[in-house]
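Hello,

Our lab assistant flagged a job as stuck in the queue for most of the afternoon. It eventually completed. Since we weren't sure the result was trustworthy after the delay, we are filing this so someone can double-check. Below is the sequence as submitted and the structure that was eventually returned. Let us know if re-running is recommended.
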Amino acid sequence: MKLIESYTAIADAGGDETLRAMQDALLIETLVYASERSPYYRERLGDTTGVKGVEDIGMLPITRRAELQKDNWSLLCVDRKDIAEVVATTGTTGEPLFIALTAADMQRLAENERRWFSAMGVTGESIAQVAVTMDNLFVAGMAYYKGLESLGAGVVRSGASNAKRQLELLMRIKPDIIIAVPSFMLKLAREAEKLGLAPDSLEKALLIGETIRGMDMASNHLGRLVEEAWNIECFSTYGITEASVAFAECASHDGFHSHPDFVFPEILDGDGCSVPDGEAGELVVTTFQVEGMPLVRYGTGDICFKVEGPCRCGSETPRIGPVIGRKAQKLKVKGTTVYPGAIENALLKADGVVNCHITAYTGEAGTDLVRVVVGTNGDSAEVLKEARSFVRADARLTPDIEVATPEEVERLLSEGGSRKKAVFKDERKRAGAFD
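-- returned structure --
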């Protein structure tokens, strides 16, 4: 963690050249370390002497999740006795990956979140309710706890307990910040209304797991619902379990910032070439200052874009936009390329749509087709009409749309037992094989 203080000083001084020199040094350090210690990278990287800094990073091969799933522990760079914590990915795209963290990695994780909470305006006088899972190898809940602890804030570790318990804690302890999933915040609001409760201490929410931002960084329908239900300022974040790092918003809400001393992000097209800022591509990350399982050009499979220009907060560190979809989830319907996230955002604009589930399947002609179920308690005919209109306008599609109750859709979202709700189900005959 030797560069944390120097990075902060560089960022404050706006020293771009010094910042780039630091990243160059961190990349070389990572390559040497991974090549010497990781069986996977010893074979994968080969001779890296031609790489002098981040400008040459394109010379290095992409690391793919499928390769790591074959031999997860070949990534490990430390002795087993040095492992302090093991976390895991959700496994929504195959076998989960186990990520081993050392004590220094845990410090890095805490520092990553400390910086984000500080950018949100959280202080040592704040009290935060962490209403997300803290167990089952889930890294995010632990990261938030460690970051808040590092900042000196008070923490209410409510975890993923039921709505009544969460509301009881909100009413009695009166935290000013909550970390939760957006749809759960809406559930809490409905439960509070039903019980005649009016928790009013919250000022901010860090919302995870579901996007609350549109391509223009403004709140999408889900984000607006949470803001209106709670009358609070909402912050969004994007985390990568494998990299033990998160990109997050500052108070300007102008994209998700990265920490240049912890991660180097790239946005690449299907041929592995960098795309211009503002253009969508796959997010590929290289981690810095990781001891347990460093990653070199790891393809996340998530499609997003780099935000153009400096942030309104004045920072010039790289920022990414919200995730548009997964690389393997790209659909081509009647000549139109679209990701499930775009369909979801369009559907949720319709008044009365509480939730939705999207299924892709293969038609008789071998083409991609889409079937949608929307959950609503409203007028089915009106909801259908408006949902079709938004999908046609925003996603340029006319999929089959059915209406169900929100509870029925909730069951579809929870199929498979993953801790993440699965809005999209891929039933195509060549699922995952589309570039």
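-- support follow-up --
The delay was a queue issue, not a problem with the job. The result is valid. The longest helix spans residues 16-37. Confidence is low (pLDDT under 50) at residues 431-435.
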